Amino acid sequence: MKRVYFLAVVSLMIFGISQAHAIQRGDPQRGEELAQTCLACHSADAVNSNPEWPRLHGQYHEYLVKSLQDYKTGRRENALMQQQVQDLSLRDKRDLAAWFSQQEGELYVPRRR
Ligand code: HEC
After folding, report:
1. Which of 38, 53, 64, 74 is the most buried (most CB within 10 A)?
2. How far apart are CA 90 and CA 73, in angstroms?
3. Pocket test for ligand 1, best of 34, 42, 77 (most atoms within 8 A of CB)
4. CA atoms within 13 A on the CB side of 90
């Protein structure tokens, strides 16, 4: 009987963790609205008009949120992007990441010199 309780507690814990994770993933619909300003540079086209602009369509959710956080804190330096994230809340970043990560597209990450 003890074992049944143990399993029940463990399942609840796993369920709790997966729920918390789901909440953090953000709302892609809201993300799509926010992303309209980003698309000027981060288009889904196979060929970017500027090779310095990475494509974000299909990028990992966690990578997107982390990059945006890093631009905000200055850990990752880029004048263009630092300006873009100035007014984004954590929720905005998660929503943006939720939308971009769900899009089909060929990733393009510029080569760092
Ligand atoms: C004026 C052009 C421009 C706009 C608008 C813009 N970005 Fe960027 N973005 C860049 C450039 C240039 C880089 C590459 C910077 C670097 O080398 O770190 C970049 C990098 C990124 C990265 C890191 C990608 C990677 O592969 O490492 C993310 C994430 C990102 N942008 C998200 C966004 C979001 C979300 C928006 C809209 C809120 C946005 N950007 C708007 C120009 C832009």
Report:
1. 64
2. 12
3. 42
4. 5
Query: Counting atoms of ligand 1 from 1, which one is nearest the CA of 71?
Result: 18
Q: Which sign, positive or negative, has the C-alpha torsion 78, 81, 84, 88?
A: negative
Select from 84, 85, 100 the residue to mutate for testing ligand 1; criterion: most ligand atoms less than 8 Å from CB.
84
Cα distances (Å, whole numbers) of residue 34 to 14, 18, 93: 32, 26, 9
112: alpha, beta or left, given left = phi > 0 and alpha = psi -120 to 50? beta
Residues recorded for the chain: 113
